[in-house]
Amino acid sequence: MMTSLTVNFNSILLMTDEQFYQLCDHNQDLKFERTSQGELIIMSPTGSETGRINADLIVQLGIWNRRTKLGVVFDSSTGFKLPNSANRSPDAAWVKRERWDSLTLEQKRKFAPLCPDFVVELCSPSDNFNTVQKKMQEYLENGAKLGWLIIPETGRVEIYRPEQVVEILENPKTLSGETILPEFVLDLQPIFED
Fold first, then answer.
1. What's the N-to-C CA distance of the chain in angstroms?
2. Minimal CA–CA distance to 93: which of 162, 32, 159, 148?
3. Strands 118-122, 31-34: pairing kind
4. Whole-prediction pTM
5. Which of 149, 145, 148, 151 has the alpha carbon at shortest distance from 126?
6. pLDDT tens digits for 167-179?
């Protein structure tokens, strides 16, 4: 079971972007995120079932992207520095090719200073659902064009789009990448299977 811990030590230490990067680099067995208020979120590695689901999602997205060459796909280990100063690691992400190519090599090597165009979060039983929903809203507020919150245990999907009400689907068979990921269709059968 995956667990997380939020630590706020802003009153004694303000961590720079470089210090945060070094912390992550020196503790690769853990996954870290940082809120826009500077709180450090420490997460254990994912459980096997979540890892299986995430791998299938990445494979499907990667095959589509390899065919279209429209952008760059990222896995759950990738950190992004959002415009609001938060450091986030979606379970899957995609960035348009021209946005990625506009970054310097140094920016690409660390936590890219941008919000992905497309993000996916998988909500596991141990996750705080409200926290994950707020994270999805944060992605939209920072420039994401499309986001999927997938809850494999219940078969529910929440679709996030800028300036729109969240769309809720129960047990969909597929999800469309819409105009953000043209012709991408995620097959949810392997994700929702027990």
1. 16
2. 148
3. unpaired
4. 0.90
5. 151
6. 999 999 999 999 9
pLDDT tens digits, residue range 132-188?
Answer: 999 999 999 999 999 999 999 999 999 999 999 999 999 999 999 999 999 999 999
In angstroms, the CA 75 to CA 126 distance is 20
| DSSP per residue, the chain | ---EEEE--TTT----HHHHHHHHHH-TTSEEEE-TT--EEEEPPPPHHHHHHHHHHHHHHHHHHHHH--EEEE-TT--EE-TTS-EE--SEEEEEHHHHHTS-HHHHHS-BSS--SEEEEE--TTS-HHHHHHHHHHHHHTT-SEEEEEETTTTEEEEE-TTSPPEEEES-SEEE-TTTSTT-EEE-HHHH--
What is the pLDDT averaged over residues 72-91? 95
Considering just the CA atoms, what is the radius of gyration of the chain in Å? 16
Compute the distance between CA of residue 191 and CA of residue 51 in angstroms, rounded to an integer. Answer: 11
Backbone angles phi, psi at 144, to 5 degrees: -60, 140
Residue 50 confidence (pLDDT) above 90: no
- pLDDT in the model for residue 176: 97
Distance of alpha carbon 89 from the chain centroid: 5
